[in-house]
From TrEMBL:
UniProt enzyme class: hydrolase
Pfam families: Pept_tRNA_hydro
Lineage: Bacteria, Pseudomonadati, Bacteroidota, Flavobacteriia, Flavobacteriales
Main location: cytoplasm
Classification via CDD domains: PTH
InterPro entries xrefs: Pept_tRNA_hydro, Pept_tRNA_hydro_CS, Pept_tRNA_hydro_sf
Site positions per UniProt: Discriminates between blocked and unblocked aminoacyl-tRNA: 11
UniProt-recorded name of the protein: Peptidyl-tRNA hydrolase
SUPFAM superfamilies: Peptidyl-tRNA hydrolase-like (SSF53178)
Family affiliation: Belongs to the PTH family.
Binding site for tRNA: 16, 65, 67, 113
Gene Ontology, cellular component aspect: cytoplasm
Species, as recorded: Capnocytophaga canis
EC number: 3.1.1.29
Function: Hydrolyzes ribosome-free peptidyl-tRNAs (with 1 or more amino acids incorporated), which drop off the ribosome during protein synthesis, or as a result of ribosome stalling. Catalyzes the release of premature peptidyl moieties from peptidyl-tRNA molecules trapped in stalled 50S ribosomal subunits, and thus maintains levels of free tRNAs and 50S ribosomes.
């Protein structure tokens, strides 16, 4: 059975739960709930397992805080013997309009500290990522407040449909591969 490591980036703690920066956690939580599985606390993070059409998706929410996510990712790739091409990291992106999905097979960290640490820990930029647009609707100098701020009412209303789309993209990544997934879900 092919295994995939699906990592939702975020920060642990109740104060971060509904913030824009925690969209990665929100996506893997949504996927776990759709498959009636729950997370358990393990080394360096919370894990859940989803089996779907002959594939095993190991969902990870690192407990290392965003800026040190790579340590948990490297540990679980090695522990579960998952090749880097079966890794998908889910993160927020200020450069995309709210709810826009952008999937790439590799790339730079784009200034995102969670991706920066992942790149350093894996010594590679060749891993898939799903970026979820949170827009950049903030005043100059207020980026941290915006990213760590909670969703607006309008965003909260739109989130369930967007989370569903992300969950479909994650399953597509495992079933159809990165290229078909990019063609199907990018900018949708």
């Amino acid at each position: 059975m092919k295994k995939y490591l699906i990592v939702g980036l975020g920060n642990i703690g109740e104060e971060y739960k509904n913030t824009r920066h925690n969209i990665g956690f929100k996506v893997v939580d949504f996927l776990a709930s759709q498959h009636t599985t729950t997370f358990s606390t393990q080394r360096l993070g919370d894990l859940a397992e989803v089996k779907h059409k002959g594939r095993t998706f190991i969902l990870l929410k690192p407990s290392t805080y965003m800026n040190l996510s790579g340590k948990a990712i490297r540990y679980w790739l090695e522990k579960e013997n998952i090749p880097i091409e079966n890794l998908l990291v889910i993160t927020d992106d200020l450069n995309l309009p709210f709810g826009t999905i952008r999937i790439k097979s590799k790339g730079s960290d784009g200034g995102h500290n969670g991706l920066k640490d992942t790149q350093a820990q894996l010594n590679s930029i060749n891993y898939a990522r799903l970026r979820f647009g949170i827009s950049n609707d903030f005043a100059k100098g207020k980026q941290v407040d915006y990213v760590l701020g909670e969703w607006s009412d309008e965003e909260n209303t739109a989130l369930p449909e967007r989370l569903e789309k992300c969950a479909q993209a994650v399953l597509s990544f495992g079933l159809s591969g990165i290229n078909i997934t990019m063609n199907t879900f990018n900018n949708k």
